[in-house]
UniProtKB/TrEMBL annotation, chain A:
Annotated protein name in UniProt: Sulfate transport system permease protein CysW
Subcellular location as annotated: Cell inner membrane
Cross-referenced InterPro entries: CysW_permease (IPR011866), MetI-like (IPR000515), MetI-like_sf (IPR035906), Sulph_transpt2 (IPR005667)
Organism: Aminobacter aganoensis
TM ranges: 28-50, 76-100, 120-140, 147-170, 254-276
Entry keywords, A to Z: Cell inner membrane, Cell membrane, Membrane, Sulfate transport, Transmembrane, Transmembrane helix, Transport
Record's bilayer topology term: Multi-pass membrane protein
TrEMBL record, chain B:
Alphabetized InterPro entries for the sequence: AAA+_ATPase, ABC_SmlMolc_Importer, ABC_transporter-like_ATP-bd, ABC_transporter-like_CS, Mo/tungstate-bd_C_term_dom, P-loop_NTPase, Sulph_transpt1, TOBE-like
Annotated protein name in UniProt: Sulfate transport system ATP-binding protein
GO BP annotation list: quaternary ammonium group transport
Molecular-function annotations in GO: ABC-type sulfate transporter activity; ATP binding; ATP hydrolysis activity
PANTHER family given in the database record: SPERMIDINE/PUTRESCINE IMPORT ATP-BINDING PROTEIN POTA, SPERMIDINE_PUTRESCINE IMPORT ATP-BINDING PROTEIN POTA
Naturally occurring in which organism (per UniProt): Aminobacter aganoensis
TrEMBL record, chain C:
Compartment(s): Cell membrane
PANTHER family: SULFATE TRANSPORT SYSTEM PERMEASE PROTEIN (PTHR30406), SULFATE TRANSPORT SYSTEM PERMEASE PROTEIN CYST (PTHR30406:SF8)
Entry's family note: Belongs to the binding-protein-dependent transport system permease family. CysTW subfamily.
Keyword Nuclease: no
Transmembrane spans: 21-45, 70-94, 106-126, 146-164, 193-214, 250-274
Gene3D superfamilies referenced in this protein's UniProt entry, alphabetically: MetI-like
Protein name as it appears in the record: Sulfate transport system permease protein CysT
Family annotation (InterPro entries): CysT_permease (IPR011865), MetI-like (IPR000515), MetI-like_sf (IPR035906), Sulph_transpt2 (IPR005667)
Quaternary state and interactors: The complex is composed of two ATP-binding proteins (CysA), two transmembrane proteins (CysT and CysW) and a solute-binding protein (CysP).
GO cellular component, one term: plasma membrane
């Protein structure tokens, strides 16, 4: 590589060069197009959610949230997230450890498989479990005989959610841990640490922000998933309705305030996620894998 | 094409990168801008190209004030440090780009562009590589393509930013000789930036030594090497040794003894003596000389470097002796620089 | 347990002093198999056991064909729109400095974070004839909600971040020297952008298009509210799967799902091919 000393002057060229920008009019035009597009397609929908939720005043909003089925939906959504996020967290760490710290045959193929759920329609993600556990499946009669209920109940919802959020943590950690290499771990082992100690005291501190980032995205999707959960849930009010499903039911019953009240809680959650995500990127950008945004 | 830089100043966010620089470049000259990083040499090159606009001052191409000309209108060939080849275009398309983007009235036909491209490829000794992509070329080959591309637009001036900076030493030396040949064959006024003094001294008709946004000295290789006009040039170009001295009554003194060097034009006071370590004569007896105790002695290639402690060990100075010279065995050496310069201590 | 027997010339994994290979790989594979592979292969197995004639009958059913056409067609249009505007957004975010840039940059990820059902009802309200946008468009005779145009709108929302986030880092990486080189060679800004910069962005733009397209084809939550779901007109393939499931017509649901998966994979394969070719050439 070239002598690093050649570059300091480049710092000045960051913004000044005449050759690499558009005329003021073109700039203004492009900025207008970009802002208008984002305003219409991103900002307006977000504003509508809150506008509709509070259209009958704060009392109606509180009443809508405080409704029995709504609270049940919120509880179920939290329960689903509390189960599925840790499962994918453990998987993500294990898979990233195996893939990033070792060289073995078929690694690239394994990495591709992990991304598979992203390219499957959420509806299909739900469908596969219906086919697997449904009454007409091979397992169906056996499950029925033993009184095990998976479909149209909490286990089915959890499974479908785990399926759709499967890659989030792993795909965040794999590139990060690959970049960090194995030097730190080898040093710890040479100093007498055992495998667990090495992981807890050396690896985990190195990946914690990336891990948190992955968990954040995983959680947002887990709480908001609609298509996959819709297929396996059975839509039983107060029993198997998550918040997104409850939004649908209320909306279809022409209860706009109720639907948007629940929707606004979910939108608030999305905003919190975006804020945390941005903070993580700003503070720990270098310690978060390069694959941002998915 | 003559290029005249007249009282140019350039600031970036108030930080002056160039302070009042003036420079006349003759038509057909090969000029090196030499200096350490941050000396402003690349900024000067980019100002001439029109990639930056001066905060103050004017740049003339011939008699024409080029300051208000856009980059596109200036018609300069610029070779970038990392070549900046267009990686999705073949070598031939890269070279022909400058002709292809001309307004239709001045644009040559496609066949003509193709012909020019292969002509230039011949010139840079890369015939037959028209269809390659930049990724399929070595560093040295990319460098040549970049030069051919810059020359394709028949530039009024050819500007090269650290043209050999990213190449390894062997290729570097070859390309240096080759650039000189191309320059002599085509006669373009050429300005190149380098931080490598060997490159500048070997290649350029004149070397412009820069430091901290100022031009320190302009001259041929011999001039800047043999008669540096500032402590900076002494220190930056070639090996140099320096010693704190005093000037009194037109004589140079070290502590309480004159050392046999006359400095009639210098004011009395603290000063620094500069000389080349190899440019000295050894003396047997010391009446008016620099004498010191040998502190260390190293073999460097074909010579021996001897480090002397002068004046009771407070100052150290290096001189160069032929290998096997008996003086290297002695514990005390007396010498006097043959060519030297004394600069009064700056009032700081 | 952790190392495969070292045969000459072939070994499953490179030797390493780091422990835990067997445990982590074993767990990962088991989990992957249970959660993803067995269910997905169940789908393929079900579909295969349908028999060719049954499968063909479902695949060529007019309602199925229409639903697939609508899904792929609207996803294509939405991805194309996103390529144009997403690239402009990415350009503005990378190249220009203005107050609130970080906030807008963060906003781009909203479709990733906002549950699709929420987006669905918000867009429907916005574009219904009485909504803020709908009431503006109605006098022009443009109906969005409950038409295929509504599907496109929802898919633009869903797909935008895919394009912006794939193109943005590539714009950041553009070597300014390359733009300066084009300028010194006499190219005006327009020529620099279209002859020099865009060809360099093309692979990223294609990737962004593919991701937005693939996501759009499978999208369900944000679409079903705004689409109106009229068979043959605005009924998307994922919805048809759900409808068939609710009719306990597992065969039809399976067949449609298999066709969707096959088409999506085919498309991703083609895109990957294009990408690896350009990468090989341009380095």
């Amino acid at each position: 590589m070239a002598d690093p000393e050649l570059y300091p002057a480049d710092a000045h060229h960051e913004h000044a060069s005449l050759a690499v920008t558009e005329r003021p009019l073109a700039r203004a035009g492009l900025m207008f197009v970009a802002f208008a597009f984002l305003a219409v397609f991103l900002l307006l929908p977000l504003v509508v959610v809150f506008e509709q939720a509070f259209s009958r005043g704060i009392g109606a909003f509180v009443e809508a949230i405080n409704e029995h089925d709504t609270i049940a939906a919120i509880k179920l959504t939290l329960l689903v997230a509390v189960i599925s996020v840790p499962l994918n967290l453990v998987f993500g760490v294990a898979a990233a450890w195996a893939i990033a710290k070792f060289e073995f045959k078929g690694k690239a193929f394994l990495t591709t498989l992990i991304d598979l759920p992203f390219s499957v329609s959420p509806v299909i993600s739900g469908l596969v479990y219906v086919l697997l556990f449904g009454a007409s499946s091979l397992l169906g009669p056996w499950l029925k005989m033993h009184g095990i209920v998976i479909l149209f109940a909490v286990p089915g919802i959890v499974l479908a959610t785990v399926f759709v959020t499967f890659p989030f943590v792993a795909r965040e950690l794999i590139p990060l841990m690959q970049e960090q290499g194995t030097g730190d771990e080898e040093a710890a082992l040479s100093l007498g640490a055992n495998g667990w100690q090495t992981f807890w005291h050396v690896t985990l501190p190195n990946i914690k922000w990336g891990l948190l980032y992955g968990v954040l995205l995983c959680n947002a999707r887990a709480m908001g998933e609609f298509g996959a959960v819709s297929v396996v849930s059975g839509h039983i009010r107060g029993m198997t309705n998550t918040m997104p499903l409850h939004v649908e039911i209320l909306y279809n019953e022409y209860n706009a305030v109720g639907a948007f009240a629940v929707a606004s809680v979910l939108a608030g959650l999305a905003l919190v996620t975006l804020v945390l995500k941005t903070l993580l990127e700003l503070r720990y950008g270098a310690e978060i894998a390069a694959t941002r945004g998915h | 094409m003559e290029v005249r830089v007249s009282n140019v100043r350039k600031e970036f966010d108030r930080f002056p990168a160039l302070r009042d620089v003036s420079l006349d470049i003759r038509s057909g000259e090969l000029i090196a801008l030499l200096g350490p990083s941050g000396s402003g040499k690349t900024t000067l090159l980019r100002l001439i190209a029109g990639l930056e606009r001066p905060t103050r001052g004017t740049i003339f191409f011939g008699d024409e004030d080029a300051s208000n000309r856009t980059i596109q209108e200036r018609n300069v060939g610029f070779v970038f440090q990392h070549y900046a080849l267009f990686r999705h275009m073949t070598v031939a398309d890269n070279i022909g780009f400058g002709l292809k983007v001309r307004p239709s009235a001045k644009r040559p036909t496609k066949a003509e562009i193709r012909r020019r491209a292969s002509e230039l490829l011949d010139l840079v000794q890369l015939s037959g590589l028209e269809k390659r992509y930049p990724a399929q070329l070595s560093g040295g080959q990319r460098q040549r393509v970049a030069l051919a591309r810059a020359m394709a637009i028949e530039p009024r001036v050819l500007l090269l930013d650290e043209p050999f900076g990213a190449l390894d030493a062997q290729v570097r030396r070859e390309l240096r000789r080759w650039l000189r040949e191309i320059h002599d064959a085509t006669g373009h006024t050429t300005i190149f930036v380098t931080h490598d003094q060997e490159e500048a001294l070997e290649l350029a008709d004149r070397v412009v030594v820069m430091s901290q946004g100022r031009i320190e000295q302009i001259g041929t290789a011999d001039e800047v090497y043999d008669t540096p006009n500032s402590p900076f040039v002494y220190g930056f170009i070639g090996e140099s040794s320096s010693l704190p001295v005093k000037v009194e009554d037109g004589q140079v003194w070290i502590s309480d003894r004159p050392i046999g060097l006359a400095a009639p034009d210098l004011p009395d006071g603290e000063a620094t003596l500069y000389f080349r370590p190899h440019d000295i004569e050894l003396l047997d007896e010391c009446n008016g000389c620099i004498a010191g105790t040998v502190a260390a002695s190293r073999r460097v290639a074909g010579t021996r470097r001897v480090e002397l402690e002068i004046g009771g060990g407070r100052e150290r100075v290096e001189i160069e002796l032929p290998v096997g010279h008996p003086a290297a065995q002695k514990s005390r050496v007396a010498f006097r620089p043959k060519r030297w310069k004394v600069f009064p201590k700056m009032a700081e | 347990m952790t190392s495969a027997p070292a045969k000459a010339g072939w070994r499953f994994r490179q030797p390493s002093v780091i422990p835990g290979f067997g445990l982590t790989l074993g767990f990962s594979l088991a989990y992957l198999t249970l959660i993803i592979l067995i269910p997905l292969s169940g789908l393929v197995w079900r579909s295969a056991s349908l028999g060719w004639t049954d499968f063909w009958a479902i695949a060529t059913d007019r309602r199925t064909v229409k639903a697939l056409e609508i899904s792929f067609g609207t996803a294509f249009i939405a991805a194309a729109v996103n390529v144009v505007f997403g690239t402009i957004v990415a350009w503005v975010l990378v190249r220009y400095r203005f107050p609130g840039r970080r906030v807008i940059d963060a906003m781009v990820d909203l479709p990733f974070a906002l549950p699709t059902a929420v987006a669905g009802i918000a867009l429907t309200t916005l574009y219904s004839p009485k909504g803020w946008m709908g009431s503006l468009l109605a006098p022009l005779g443009i109906k969005v909600a409950y038409t295929p145009l509504g599907i496109v709108i929802a898919l633009i929302f869903i797909g935008l971040p895919f394009v912006v986030r794939t193109v943005q880092p590539i714009i950041e990486e553009i070597d300014k020297e390359v733009e300066e080189a084009a300028a010194t060679l006499g190219a005006n800004r327009f020529q620099t952008i279209f002859l020099v910069l865009f060809p360099g962005l093309a692979p990223a733009v294609i990737t962004g298009f593919a991701l937005a397209f693939a996501r759009g084809v499978g999208e369900y939550g944000s679409v079903i509210f705004i689409a109106g779901n009229l068979p043959y007109i605005s009924e998307i393939a994922p919805l048809l799967i759900v409808i068939r499931l609710e009719e306990y017509d597992y065969a039809a649901a399976t067949a449609i799902a298999t066709i969707m998966l096959a088409l999506s994979f085919l498309m991703l394969l083609v895109i990957n091919l294009i990408q690896s070719r350009t990468r090989k050439r341009y380095g």
